[in-house]
Design goal:
single chain; 227 residues; alpha/beta; 8-stranded parallel beta sheet; 19% strand; globular
């Protein structure tokens, strides 16, 4: 297993994935779930995105189940109803310390509000809260803007972030120069927030030896092939 992820799991069995809309939270969450399962962990992937109906972990339930990964999603996910109803499942699995729990949180502070409901349980169990940074996303190109959004997310969720993940990419156009160019801004974000960089993630085709190779499974709605 990728060493920085092993270190996160030594700290807590819960990984919360937060960030700006479109920063790559779902791709990271799905990849983490699959890799933790491959490493032999029992894994639950929770889709806590009750804001964005287009890019959500609930879209990957069939893939997760084929790989022995349990899922929790809003009651009406993947239906023609977009009603933000959450069940009690997350509270139950957070208490199971023998199980890795990965939570794909909705974008920005609006999405993080749902996470605040579980703040007492998460504080009691311990957690990793990753703030996913994509230097190429509108509104968070500058480190100061990304740091301000991070504070909004922490306020809305009533939790404190623990690590930064640099997931700066341009989708299929991502190359080594693209990743390298994001590093100064990410270092500045770490300085402003006082948080350590957990790791840099990149699409598998572009990932370096010390970077987490992402499975690029999330596609735009018009690119998806429905079964």
């Amino acid at each position: 297993m990728f060493k920085p992820i092993s270190l996160l799991l030594q700290r807590s069995h819960v990984i919360l994935v937060t960030g700006h809309y479109g920063c790559g939270k779902t791709s990271l969450s799905v990849s983490l779930a699959l890799d933790c399962r491959l490493a032999g962990y029992d894994v639950t992937l929770c889709d806590l995105d009750i804001v964005n109906p287009y890019f959500r972990s609930a879209d990957f339930e069939a893939l997760m189940h084929r790989n022995g990964i349990a899922t929790i999603s809003p009651t009406f996910a993947n239906t023609n109803l977009d009603i933000p109803v959450l069940g009690p499942g997350l509270s139950a699995v957070v208490r199971k310390r023998e199980q890795v729990v990965i939570v794909d949180v909705g974008g920005d502070d609006a999405g993080a509000v749902a996470l605040g409901r579980y703040a007492p349980e998460l504080c009691a169990s311990g957690y990793n809260m990753l703030y996913v940074y994509n230097h190429y996303r509108y509104l968070t190109r500058e480190a100061a803007d990304a740091a301000a959004l991070l504070e909004d997310i922490c306020g809305a969720s009533r939790l404190r972030a623990t690590h930064i993940v640099n997931n700066s990419n341009l989708g299929e156009e991502t190359g080594r120069a693209c990743i390298a160019a994001s590093a100064p801004a990410c270092r500045e974000l770490c300085r402003l927030s006082g948080l350590p960089l957990a790791f840099t993630a990149a699409p598998k085709a572009a990932a370096g030896e010390d970077e987490y190779p992402l499975r690029m499974l999330v596609h735009k709605p018009w690119e998806r092939q429905w079964e």
